[in-house]
Amino acid sequence: MPDRSTTQRSDPRPSRRRLLRRVGAAASGAVVGLSGCLAGLGIGGEACNGHTIESEADLEGADLSDCDLSGADLSKATLTDADLRGVDLRDADLFLAEFEGADLTNADLRDATVLIGALTKADITGVNLSGSDLSNATLSGEELADVSLANADLTGADLSEANLAGADLSGATGVDADLEDADLAEANLSGADLTDATLPNADLSDADLSGVNLTDAIFPTVDLSGADLTGANLTSSYPVGADLTDADLTGATWLDGTECETADCGGLADRL
């Protein structure tokens, strides 16, 4: 019987099948340790709709719609003009990825690592960025309609002239944020903290501002018509010239600390 230790093979390199078999028999820690080797052989990484998902991947124009890419490494990937509608990118690494012209409608990017400036070059209608840290971000004039920024940190962010119509900013922290001329019509800002925020000329018509903290906020000539301000805190704010037509201030704290018992705060809303 031949000595197996000395038998020569016509091709000394292990086949992919044999390598996979060895990996399958190894402990889970070993699989992780061999991931770089497997990728080098072209058998590692994830795939969706026929596209390999990996760092620095060229996915220009790729159809990745509805793919589950949660936790994927797409750092430095080229995703220009890609179809990313409804894709799950939670916890994904998207650092320095390029999104110009991409369609990210209704994509889920919660806890993803991504440069927000790159996303604004794409269609991000309805994107879920809940809990994101956007403190001091410059988003002036950006299209953020229907985006979810619930519980996001927008401290000091520049959102002037941004389109946030219908956006979900419930529970967001927008202390010292700049929302001048922003469109927040029908947006949900319930429970948000907008202490010291500036909102002159902003459109907050029909917005949900229940329980919002507007202490020391500056919002002259803002449109608050039809807005829900129940339980809001307006202490020491500056709403001179604001339109509060049909707004509901029941339970809100007025500028001087008075609690509003009626929708028009006892007629105080008409005296601005």
Automatic annotation (TrEMBL):
Pfam families for this protein: Pentapeptide
InterPro entries: 5peptide_repeat, Pentapeptide-BTB/POZ_domain, TAT_signal
Superkingdom of origin: Archaea
Name the record gives this protein: Pentapeptide repeat-containing protein
Organism: Natronorubrum tibetense GA33
Lineage per the UniProt record: Archaea, Methanobacteriati, Methanobacteriota, Stenosarchaea group, Halobacteria
